[in-house]
Design goal:
Strand content: over 45%
Shape: globular
Number of strands: 8
Number of helices: 1
Strand order of the largest sheet: 1-2-3-8-5-6
Radius of gyration: 13 Å
Order of helices and strands: EEHEEEEEE
Distance between the termini: 19 Å
Number of domains: 1
Oligomer: single chain
Structural class: mainly beta
Length: 100
């Protein structure tokens, strides 16, 4: 677990700091928990909701942990119109997912 500052609050989150945890994230989990992703470098990392069972807020942060983009994301279903990726508007180093 890691403590992450978000909007003047400290949030406890599971740390995704390796390839497997970053790739899987919260997919296929029914347990709602915060997850903090430490990416290998700053980039336009795409996230999507494959295998998600609940909506989340996706917060992209730069190398200084300043928020650069936020999205409310809903799980996808069989309708291809729900298939969407979420990307920051600038390169991100960190991503915080918060169940809503």
């Amino acid at each position: 677990m890691i403590a992450v500052k978000y909007k003047n609050k400290t949030i406890e989150a599971e740390l995704a700091d390796n390839w497997w945890k970053i790739s899987k994230g919260l997919s296929f989990s029914f347990k709602k928990r915060n997850m903090f992703f430490e990416m290998p470098h700053e980039d336009y990392w795409p996230f999507w909701m494959f295998g998600m069972f609940f909506p989340i807020k996706i917060i992209f942060m730069d190398k200084n942990k300043d928020i650069i983009s936020e999205f409310y994301a809903k799980p996808i279903d069989i309708d291809p119109r729900t298939w969407r990726t979420y990307k920051p508007n600038r390169p991100a180093k960190y991503v915080l997912e918060i169940p809503i």
